[in-house]
Amino acid sequence: MEKIPMTPAGFAALEAELKNRQQVERPRIINAISEARAHGDLSENAEYHSAKEQQSLNEGRIAELEDKLSRAEVIDITKLSGTKVKFGATVTLLDEDTEEEKSYQIVGDMEADVKLGRISISSPIARALIGKDVGDTVEVISPGGARSYEIIKVRFA
């Protein structure tokens, strides 16, 4: 069984979603199903079919979350240090074409959000950065084409 790396914050977010789906969504959907059943003929009852579909989607997501949480390898990034890029690092890069600085934190697949500056460990840019040091130049081949970045700073916070 393959472990899934994630930060403590990512783990907590998944736990919170699981708790919400089990303790809030599940009872709400069960009530909606029983209410729709009370309306009679189920074969043509759109409310019933909608509630059953919601139940299926919710239960599927619960199973997915339970699987991810059971395989989670929580990495406490506050205990990491150094100048080499590894999981959890926040890396400041200089785009060698545009001279623009960008910062990304390398996180697990489930907690990635580019808008918040968190990229997945399995993304092309993170794979290119892992193991590199401050001052190194990396070339990233992505769907948008090849880009060169210089690693300016690596921090763990």
Automatic annotation (TrEMBL):
GO terms for molecular function: DNA binding; RNA polymerase binding; translation elongation factor activity. It comes from Methyloraptor flagellatus. HAMAP family: GreA_GreB (MF_00105). Residues 83-155 form the Transcription elongation factor GreA/GreB C-terminal domain. Belongs to the GreA/GreB family. Pfam families: GreA_GreB (PF01272), GreA_GreB_N (PF03449). Residues 4-74 form the Transcription elongation factor GreA/GreB N-terminal domain. Keywords: DNA-binding, Elongation factor, Protein biosynthesis, Transcription, Transcription regulation. This is Transcription elongation factor GreA. Necessary for efficient RNA polymerase transcription elongation past template-encoded arresting sites. The arresting sites in DNA have the property of trapping a certain fraction of elongating RNA polymerases that pass through, resulting in locked ternary complexes. Cleavage of the nascent transcript by cleavage factors such as GreA or GreB allows the resumption of elongation from the new 3'terminus. GreA releases sequences of 2 to 3 nucleotides. One of its GO terms (biological process) is DNA-templated transcription elongation. Gene3D superfamilies: Transcription elongation factor, GreA/GreB, C-terminal domain, Transcription elongation factor, GreA/GreB, N-terminal domain.
